[in-house]
Write a structure and sequence with these properties.
about 775 residues, 19 helices, binds dioxothiomolybdenum(VI) ion, binds pteridine-2,4(1H,3H)-dione, about 25% strand, alpha+beta, about 30% helix, binds ligand MTE, 8-stranded mixed β-sheet
Amino acid sequence: MNDAGILKAPVWSGVGTSRAHESAALHVLGQATYTDDIPEVQGTLHAALGLSSKAHAHIVAIDLAPVRASAGVVAVYTVDDIPGTNDCGPIIHDDPIFAPGLVQYVGQPIFIVVADTHDNARRAARLARVTYDELPAILTPQAARAAQSYVLPPMRLARGDSEAAFARAPHKVQGELYVGGQEQFYLEGQIAYAIPKEDQGMLVLTSTQHPSEMQHVVAHALGLHSHHVVVECRRMGGGFGGKESQSALWCAAAAIAAARLKRPVKLRADRDDDMLVTGKRHCFHYEYEVGYDDTGAIVAARVDMVTRAGYSADLSGPVATRAVCHFDNTYYLSDVEIRAACGKTNTQSNTAFRGFGGPQGAIAIEYVLDEIARNLGRDALDIRRINYYGTVDRNVTPYGQVVVDNVIGALTDELEATSDYRARRQQIDLFNATSPVLKKGLAFTPVKFGIAFNVTHLNQAGALVHVYVDGSILVNHGGTEMGQGINTKVMQVVAHELGVDMVHVRATATDTSKVANTSATAASTGADLNGKAAQDAARQIRDRLAAYAVKLYGGEPEAVRFAFDTVYVNGHAVPFPELVQKAYLARTQLWSDGYYATPGLSWDPKTMSGRPFSYFAYGAAVAEVVVDTLTGEWKLLRADALYDAGRSLNPAIDIGQVEGAFIQGMGWLTTEELWWNDGGKLMTHAPSTYKIPGVSDCPEDFRVRLFDNGNVEDSIHRSKAVGEPPLLLPFSVFFAIRDAISAVGDHQINPPLNAPATSEEILKAVTEVLAR
Ligand code: MTE
Ligand code: LUZ
Ligand code: MOS
């Protein structure tokens, strides 16, 4: 049992206790089945994609003869072989499955080759002779802006008169910032295994956060109806947003080949192809101008953001919307104007990644506050606190949602004390005074993150709960397991409702033939939505069992209690399986569906206003780093994080999520650099050139705790979502690095620091500080 393993309730109670991940034993024994581990059906073939080598070009001619002649090749299919629609885009249908005569990025799929083995398919895929007629390519967000090249109309959210407020502000900061993108780097790559079934049916086993979307895309690509297609996913080896929309290409391509050949086809991307083909976190470029007073209070904030959307819209619209709605972070901005544009570039189509634009919106205001503090010679925590949202006034966001659950003040107080922030600040100043080369830095950063899909209709979920005659329970819901522990939490909820230990509950693969029209498991809402839906299903069964128990033993249905694997009714204690047996013989329905739709949400995309979020999750972190100012090397010495998971459903899992998100976000802001060459080819397409954090990058002293705070909203057992918001906590690492760099100039100069703060970027900033 780990630190979080204090059992707050007896083990029979499923909820609020640190239960192990439902697949923990399978994970560590190597027995958890991922898509590629599923035993193959006889006759299975293997496929690979043929990719564009140009960023923007017309295809003049394709010679596929060498591909067809390659060893083991069975078939090659292009855009001309698609039975239905050549489209795998999630919202705006601008994503072709196979390039239709025009390629728009290096890595865009042009054809699929099917062979007897995976290796033979991969070898053959490289042999196509494609003649291109090259067109000019746009590669950066700034270039897209200059060319007014956008995948969607630019958006704007404004309140008050920021222009006038800025003009009369006593102090001003103006500048630019660039924050790079990030590869999802799920350990299990994209994969789809398509198995034809009778009468046009198609079963697709795949690693996806969004089985229903895969079902729809496959149906359209095959020219079928949704009821012809079943999509199943037991688990992913990580998704992180990268399998929300972009598993579609792989599902569609495999299904097209399987349908044409009437044979099972497996398409598994190797890492380089995966990174070349699929989109990543959106990078952002910002221009900001902010006015503030002598106390450091912001009086006007204006920001203009442009992002590299890539060649198509994918989810860039909702991502940019979330960026706009998170620029405020924990701060009240009275007069504010936020602009965001989705630059159309000849690169991979960028997509969801943990935080979904939220981190990109919030980091800009944090950068500004960091500058204000340095300009005023004040501790940045004090400046942040002055600008925090209020609890009774100063509590309306720029998009009009009233912040009714603000706990950032209390949470900040707690972390400031437990992290020993003030004393360590002094120690660091003393250290730096006598250390010319190694400089230490410290930073405290807060987080507020809106929970709900910002597209209102997506906030719904369904579940099925079966109680079998032996008393064992099976739960199926629309969410997908990607390691985050959704199944464990949903099992806990069901166990709690029926008063049985979790060991009697089993979760099955997500399956479009069980729960229909599901949303992606995304926006951190998986357990919120599917937990509620499963609770609804379990309650219906419990009510039926209670009614039947009263028939047998007397008493009132409301007084029947389900706990300790026992049903307590009118002075009798009946073992749960015994009551179930009897209820079955009396012809009681022992299974149920359940449904949930988050209440109270609204959003008007035209005015960018409404109540897009059900509630906010809060958090804060303190990071201490040491930077070698001669080499740009650095180390995270200690990190303290405090996260508001509400009444946590499972503290161990939630702490694991905070730790994972912290390190993942730290990678984004420090070592993970995506780099395209002049021809638009992503050169960092493997772990050899793209550096995600390793275990040695984790701080030796890592203190993660949960902030005890029941959700004011009626969420599942008053818990709060945990999946994405902690990704913003390592802002503290980035600003600690900036603090250490600024120590070189005795904190008189704002070091210009873009993200990722690679050693190279750090050295550049040190040089700039020294030169001023
Ligand atoms: N944790 C693990 N281990 N693997 C993942 O892929 N994805 C994150 C987060 N935590 C992810 C993860 C993202 S992007 C989201 S939106 C949430 O989990 C989704 O799950 P939830 O809504 O059930 O929390
Ligand atoms: N909105 C959101 C979305 O906030 N998060 C998401 O993951 C998402 N996905 C699709 C559409 N809107
Ligand atoms: Mo998470 S980026 O919402 O899949």
